Every structure is written in C-alpha cells, then in structure tokens.
Amino acid sequence: MSVWSVEIDAGTAKKIQKLDRETQRLILSYINRHLRNSPDPRASGKALTGPLRGLWRYRIGDYRLLAEIRDDELVIVAVDIGHRSAIYSRSR
To answer: Where do the domains of the chain lie, and which CATH numbers do they carry?
Structure first.
C-alpha cells in the first residue's frame, strides 16, 4: 500500500486557520483518512475540467479542497480550499 504525503500550500493553510474549529477538524480528518492512507487518492476525488484542468476536487461537507496529484513523488498538494459556492470562480 502506497503512503501519500500531503502538502498544504501556505495560502490554503491560512484559509483553513480562518475556519471554525469544527470545520478545521473535519478537513484535517478527511485529509488523514482519505488522502494520506489511500492507495489511490483519485478514488475519493473528481478530476476537474476547463481552466482547472489538472486539479482534483475533494468534497468535505460544504467545502471543496482542490489539489494537484504528483504521481512520481507520491505527493498531493492542496492548492485551495473554500465554500462550494465560491471555490471554482475564485480559483480560476
């Protein structure tokens, strides 16, 4: 079983810190359970298209985590997080 490492972009980490504690716990728990310990992180995400092509979306409650998957390094880079109503227009 491959163990993926997850890197959280500085801007994304700052956005997570601004969220309430319960949402922070939910997001970090999701990252640990579904991304770090997954043999294939694509199984729990969805590939994005259009201007966000190359990124993967993960649904965490009302929030969306956008990430880049680097297969050659076994690294998932969290590049943005936000409420589902605004994340896609803001990340273009």
So the answer is: 5-90 (3.30.2310.20)
